[in-house]
Amino acid sequence: MSIRLIARDLYRLIREVSELEKQIDDALLERQEALTDELRKAKVERDRLRRALDGSKESPTKSYR
After folding, report:
1. Cα–Cα distance, 12 to 29 (Å, whole number)
2. Which residue has the higher pLDDT, 43 or 59?
3. Rounded CA gap, 59 and 56, in Å?
4. Phi-psi region of 43 (alpha: psi -120 to 50; beta: other; left: phi over 0)
5. Structure pTM?
6. How many CA atoms lie within 13 A of 16 on its CB side?
7. What is the distance between the alpha carbons of residues 13 and 21, in angstroms, rounded to a whole number?
8. Which DSSP string do the residues of the chain spell out, in sequence order?
């Protein structure tokens, strides 16, 4: 996966996490549990992509001697 695609997906997930956090604040208690589960999954994926993007940015500068 290219850096550009990772960055685009990461940006999408950052927006999704922010939107879910807002929805949780405004939701009824019955809906908050489901939204919290969605938020947890989105954060895991966001963090995974962030690590992938950080790793791909560091790769070219490493020396292999």
Report:
1. 26
2. 43
3. 5
4. alpha
5. 0.79
6. 18
7. 12
8. --HHHHHHHHHHHHHHHHHHHHHHHHS-HHHHHHHHHHHHHHHHHHHHHHHHHHHHHHGGG----
